Amino acid sequence: MKDNFKKLKRKLLLEAIGLIVMSVILGAIFLHLFVDGVLESWFAEGFVTWLQNWMGLDYYAARQIYLKIFVYNKPMILGGAFLLLLGGALYVMGMRLTRYYQEMAQAVHKLLDESDEPIVMSDGLEFMATELNEVKRVLKHRERVARESEQRKNDLVMYLAHDIKTPLTSIIGYLSLLEESQELPSTFRQKYTGICLDKSYRLETLINEFFEITRFNIHEVVLEKETFNLTFMMEQLVDEFYPLLLEKNLKINLMYEEEVEFYGDVDKLVRVFNNLLKNAVAYSYPQSIIELHIFKTVAEVTLTFKNQGKTIPKHKLETIFEKFYRLDTSRTSQTGGSGLGLAIAKEIVVAHKGTIEVESSEAGTIFTITLPYSK
């Protein structure tokens, strides 16, 4: 962009110089042809004749006027002619600049145009048209993403509101039954109490999803960094997932060559790793192995989370980190959450100046997090 503006500036400067040179050339041509040149007598006679015919002067008086204007005051006449030509050149340059400004103003207004018609500008401003078309494309993409995200959020809130009614209705029904049936056998009373407790846990999960949506909308990642043992943190996380692993007969292999000391926000990074492990468990085939690798280099640390499960389609990989996006759209599935986990995880990783990527194939799905060492 900077080089293109330099080219435009050079072009305008050359045009200005060209107009000035042209003014000088025209003035010189006029001088040598009509005043001091081969056409001098023809021009003089014509000028004198014009004064005689239009002003009623005699030949001697008309001849004196010609001499005073074009011969005795030649420098002044030439200077005036040059200034006149220079003024015309500056006017042309001003018109050219005005046209550029008008084109740029119209192009900026077209950025808000909802049509797909491309922005077209004149020669010399093609680079700006290209840049503005790219800006327009990005704005439309962001608008579309924001609109889709808002729609997903609205759908999610509607689903959550509907889902909350189900466990709440069950809780009210079983509690009413327990209150009305005072002589209910203890086995049934225990069964109904357990159902109420399970439904309460489910209700708590749904309410937490509501809070997660609200927190994300007002959320700004503020890091509170400290030095901690990253490998020890991951070992603790893996131990905490032991009950969930038993349900599907899964196993987590944590592999690293040496312990890693890292400087970052412990609580937020725990949330990132916890989310990725939870997704790996939720989407893994039963009796499979989840592989967790930690690689350390001089400049950064890389963590990979690999699980064996259904291949994620390519078009979903491109949107998997968008907020309110869920791989499993079923609300009854245990894997169906608010769709904020990976979006928040990306924000936290980016806040640490890191990257998070995903790839999926028949060999498995791999999430890769790279975090640079920085104070």
UniProtKB/TrEMBL annotation:
Ranges for domain Histidine kinase come to: 159-375
Looking up SUPFAM superfamilies in the UniProt record yields:
ATPase domain of HSP90 chaperone/DNA topoisomerase II/histidine kinase (SSF55874), Homodimeric domain of signal transducing histidine kinase (SSF47384)
Locations listed in the record: Membrane
Q: Which GO terms describe its molecular function?
A: kinase activity
Q: What does the record give as EC number?
A: 2.7.13.3
Keywords tagged on the record: Kinase, Membrane, Phosphoprotein, Transferase, Transmembrane, Transmembrane helix, Two-component regulatory system
- Key word Acetylation present in the record? no
Native species? Turicibacter faecis
Enzyme class name: transferase
Q: Catalytic activity, per the record?
A: ATP + protein L-histidine = ADP + protein N-phospho-L-histidine
This chain's protein is named: histidine kinase
Q: Transmembrane ranges? A: 12-35, 76-94
- InterPro entries in the record, alphabetically? BphY/WalK/GraS-like (IPR050351), HATPase_C_sf (IPR036890), HATPase_dom (IPR003594), His_kinase_dom (IPR005467), HisK_dim/P_dom (IPR003661), HisK_dim/P_sf (IPR036097), Sig_transdc_His_kin-like_C (IPR004358)
